[in-house]
Batch of 2 targets.
Target 1
Amino acid sequence: MADPVEASVMAATQKASERQSFTDKSGPAAWKHLPSWYLIFRQRSDDPTKAEEFMARRMGATIRTAHASHTSMVSHPKEVVEIILLAAKAQVAGHARELIPQRF
């Protein structure tokens, strides 16, 4: 759980999405051609886990779950770092295979 100072900073710096972000075209979905990782939080009051699971499966993501709220980067930084490292290691391993000369 965040300490009072950290909670105050988060409350003061987070702002609502711009209206434009809901109307602008974003281009092709990156998940259609790039590997994806998805961390689902299971303690959110709005309980969107079924929709999140659907989206994560549709994109073929590597899925992890955490029993945390939507501010999990504060309350559960270990789980957030773990999935970032998992993604980074997978990308490095994939690029390493591309860099190794193929022997015929």
Target 2
Amino acid sequence: MSNLSLNHFSIRSIDLDKTVQFFSDVLDLKPGPRPNFPFPGAWLYSGDSSDYANSVVHIISIDKNDPAGLNNTSVIVMRVPCKVLEQLIILLSLQPDLKK
């Protein structure tokens, strides 16, 4: 059994409505509440949408005419045991390219 589980992932989209529709159709996720961020977006839920912990996809709407916004990355959040996290931090700290 794995000690790793997916918490949620965030993606960026230039078409919020089509992206919500895609994940709703393909994964049967349902739109629900999200914090009052200063940018448009949507949170999609698997299960009870009254608990933010059940949100599995965070969609961030971006303006295709804003070159700075197109270069940012998406996010994947995973749950790992503390022991695994400690080992990961040690491994990453040994990588010379990541110390910049």
